[in-house]
Write a structure and sequence with these properties.
Layout (H helix, E strand, L loop, with lengths): L6 E4 L7 H12 L5 E5 L11 E3 L6 H4 L4 E5 L16 H16 L5 E4 L4 H8 L6 H9 L5 E6 L2 E5 L9 H4 L2 H17 L7 E5 L14 H15 L3 E6 L7 H4 L4 E4 L2 H11 L5 E5 L5 E4 L16 H19 L1
Parallel strand pairs: 1-2, 1-5, 2-4, 3-4, 5-12, 7-10, 8-9, 8-10
Antiparallel strand pairs: 6-7, 6-11, 11-12
Helix pairs in contact: 3-4, 7-8
Amino acid sequence: MSAEPPVAVSIGEPSGIAPEILCKAWQRLGSRLPFFVIGDPAHLAGYGVEPVPIARPADAAAAARRGLPVLPHAFPAPAIPGQPAPENAASVIDVIARGVDLVMRGEASALTTAPIHKKALMDGAGFRFPGHTEYLAHLAGVERVVMMLACPDLRVVPATIHIALSQVQAALTPQLLTDTIRITHASLISDFAIPAPRIAVAGLNPHAGEGGAMGRDEIEVIGPVIRALRAEGLAVSGPHSADTMFHAGARAGYDAAIAMYHDQALIPIKTIDFAGGVNVTLGLPFIRTSPDHGTAFDIAGTGRADATSLIAALEMARDMARQRHAT
């Protein structure tokens, strides 16, 4: 049996904590979970781990026995911790695209993306996407993708993502919510080995609108979508009051929760597992995971960065790729 391809990791913003947590991840995983970084080897030096340049992804497993495998990608400027260089912005973007290409061609089993700094990319290279998720959808040619946050105790999906709270009500259309639930349902089957997924849907308003007294979104948008999907045979419940959805007893009743906006989803998962949450993009033709944190410029280069979320993202990428390959 041929060895499974390694996980590709885009280096993200090299002036953040990515170089440190990548080295720490290799120290903990070694060759048990072969992965390789796409980036400048010089940006990974000085963290107590030897960067090992490789010529192709297939060399990663052997290289991982000696150090951190790196598929070299030139960056024009050094990486100074906490100080993103505008001239590196285009290379940060190019590395993501290169990772997608490698996964799409089957040279990598999945893509894990280290954090980017969106303002640095906008200022340095005119990056026009709200975040990784939207850029990956563009690269894959996919119209609709879903952002899931996952840890051992919770999987949660925000129906709307990187928009102002004042824009959520208008953005929350029946089509968006239907697509979000369908994509989540399909991924729970194909990527998480859950043959009959149970999905709980939150309301938008306090107390899920309380029968229309606190808003009619549940009556006019959310409820009808749930009923239509139930009629098709999906196990979808709600709309539930979001303030009672995320305690342990409630979580035992579903496999994934659908939230209506960003913070409604991210506050519970970061409260439950701040260090170990993983960002997963559903609906792509490849597996993509990411640590559920940012560049952390304030602690970059200090040795205090925690690699737990990155390690969880690598492990989830490997497991999802194996499951998708098996189905």
